[in-house]
Amino acid sequence: MQTNEPEGSIVWSLGSLEAEVMERIWSADRPLPVREVVDAMNAERPAALAYTTVMSTMAKLHRKGWLNRARSGKQFLYEPYESRDACTARLMAEALTNSSNPESVLLHFVERMSSTDSPALLSAVRRALDDGT
Fold first, then answer.
1. What are the distances in angstroms from CA 109 to CA 24, 54, 121?
2. Is residue 45 classed exposed, middle or buried when 0-12, 13-18 and 19+ CB atoms within 10 A define those classes?
3. Which end of the chain is more exposed for a tag (fewer CB within 10 A), N or C?
4. For the chain, the helix, strand and coil percentages under 3-state DSSP, each to the nearest 5
5. How does DSSP assign 4-33, residue by residue?
6. Is the separation of the CB atoms in 54 and 38 below 8 Å?
7. 83 phi-psi bin (left φ>0, alpha ψ -120 to 50, beta other)
8. Are 22 and 66 in contact (CB under 8 A)?
């Protein structure tokens, strides 16, 4: 696969079509050609998207570092550069990095967590601290 590392702060710049494509790609269990993505998207839309529209969007996502691609015959197969979870973690890290007060950001984040998510946070912190020693 041809890879591109994501640019800084690109998480905020996904348009609705780009986000829809990424959802399809993240949901797949294998690299996908444009045709499969187009067909899946059009099966759920009232107005069909043109193949070239989706192809251009996927090429753009590759250039931005969201997708890896490899040639397979006359077509490209696309897969995510990183998992949805890794992308979410990068988004959170960018928010902390861009903040003038990361501790305050973390406090607000924790205050917004549900009581069912709090144990997951504690478990993740424990695991990270154990891995670091």
1. 28, 35, 11
2. exposed
3. C
4. 60, 10, 30
5. -PPPTTGGGG--HHHHHHHHHHHH-SS-EE
6. yes
7. beta
8. yes
Query: Tell me, what amino acid is at 98?
Result: N
Bridge partner list, 78: 32, 69
- Which pLDDT band holds residue 87 (cuts at 50, 70, 90)? confident
pTM listed for this prediction: 0.74
Q: Which of 12-26, 31-45, 87-101 is modeled with the greatest confidence? A: 31-45
Tokens encoding 118:
């709090």
Block residue for tokens 């990270």 = 128
Q: Count other Cβ atoms within 10 Å, centred on residue 66.
A: 24
In this structure, the number of other CB atoms found within 10 A of the CB of residue 35 comes to: 12
- For residue 78, which of 24, 25, 35, 7 has the smallest C-alpha distance? 25
Q: How many residues does the chain have?
A: 133
Place of tokens 């197969």: 77
Q: In one letter, which amino acid is 79?
A: E
